[in-house]
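INFO  loader      accepted 1 record
INFO  loader      residues=592
INFO  predictor   begin
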Amino acid sequence: MSSMPPEGGRKAPTRRQQHRTTDVLEKDDIEQRLEKALFGDEAGFLDSLSAARHEEGKALQLYVSGSELDSASEQDEDLGDVPDEDLFFLDAGTDTLPAAISEQLDRTGEEESSGASPAAWYDSDDDRLTISLATHTRLRKLRDTEADDVITGREYGQRLRRQYERLHPAPEWLSYARRKRRMSNGASHAESDSDVSMDESDSLPPVKPLAELLRSVGSLTRTSNNTHDRKRRKLRSEVIDVQRTKDVTPAGPSSIDTLEFHSEYPLLLAGGPCQTLTLYHVSPQPPNPNPVLTSLHVKGSPLHTASFCTPAEPSDEVDETRVFFSSRRRYFHTWSLSAGTVAKVTRPLSTFKHDQRTTEHFKLSPCGRYMGLISSSKKGGGSINVLSTTSMQLVCSCRVDAQGGVSDFDWWRDGEGFAVVAKNGEVSEYSVAEKRIIERWWDEGSVGTTVISIGGEDSRWIAIGSSSGIVNIYDRKSPAFSSMLAAEPTDAHPKVTSNQNRPSPARSLDQLTTPISHLVFSPDGQMLAMASRWKKDALRLVHLPSCTVYRNWPTDKTPLGRVSSLALGGRNGEWLAVGNEQGGIRLWEIRD
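INFO  predictor   done
INFO  writer      dumping tokens
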């Protein structure tokens, strides 16, 4: 049965036609408000663009007053009818800036001009950007002073970079690569004839120079030249007044194997197997007692010996004090305190490399002109090779053919010669000017001689220590020694006689029972310090010229430890420094 069409003969609209009819219908008020709230309209989009431009302008200025905003809006309304070509201009910046900002820009320019490589590009808007460091808690760490507040954007970036480098320093390989690149760019291909050989791979970084510090009388008091004009102090023979002061260092990473006072300045040099040389200012007064002036780290060289080298002819303009230091290597180093440079010396030692297998044992002459190195030979005996401290050339060599080899040597006080002692007790006195042995004698009752030391005015006193703990003190002014020197030689070379060349010591000391490792005279020759590192608290002080051991010091409670180094300093020997195997340096003041 077919359905009947609707009235009027028209067909009913299909579903698609009904949907199209719905789309063209006008939107009512509720629908329009809902659509505007969700998607916005054209007017709202333009307002958003205007607000975004306004916020972008505010980002370039930290402080903007309300009156300025009102005036800006009024100007915008007034510019509505202005043509487009008149609305834009080239902004070249203001002619004048605030004083604080100008100073920061000038300082930034100076820092960039002093740097090695300037920035390839920077944003000019950074100069107009102002940032307050005081109002933000996280930015207060970037201030240089408490009053520091508003800075420019470029200065802000540099301070952020500086803070980052403080927290994360540049790695060592980066500094080495930069230094190597600078050396390769400015290096010369010409070979140097100097006896000081500096290898790039072995070069040490420069150390902070002490030129200003050494010249400054206010920061580092130099010993007065009028000391000799004052009355010379005289120590008592049996009791000594010793006052302990603040320790230079209570402990360290290794033992203190070398310790020495400067002859003119209140400086103390210390070093050991930790591969670090440290320079202290001897000043035990609070609040900062015995501060560290500078230090030098030498990789791969456990230090054994270090000594000050004062020039023979001092200069009033530049202090030419150097430090010589060595380890168990075929080379040694020199360190200029005034310039802060370090040089490695190898070439002059190549002439006798078969005998000089190590430079760990050396001594500098008191005059500062010579350096003596102990060497041993496979065939027995040994020698003392003397170098010039200025040219590093070989001056002379003293050969000693003694059983057991060379134990030790020490310079005469005038630096014109030295005395060499062999392990069998044979003592040879060598003159650098004549380049020969002028005297040879034997230590009485010597059993395994270990160390020798010369001190006093005109090299009067000679002290010789042995492995049994006995210390013999000889007086050159005694009749026995004078008769030995006046005896006629048995041949054309040194005086060697069986009886006359065995002088009797002025005193034999047996207070120590272990091998003697250190013998040190005071600068004025009134005291001798002897110690052994093979037993705890093994140290004694001897009065001269009576050659008596002080009975009141050290006591059982004196914290010495195992003595690994010893030094007497000051023009009159008023300072006693003791280094031990725990890395500590104790300091005592010797009073009248």
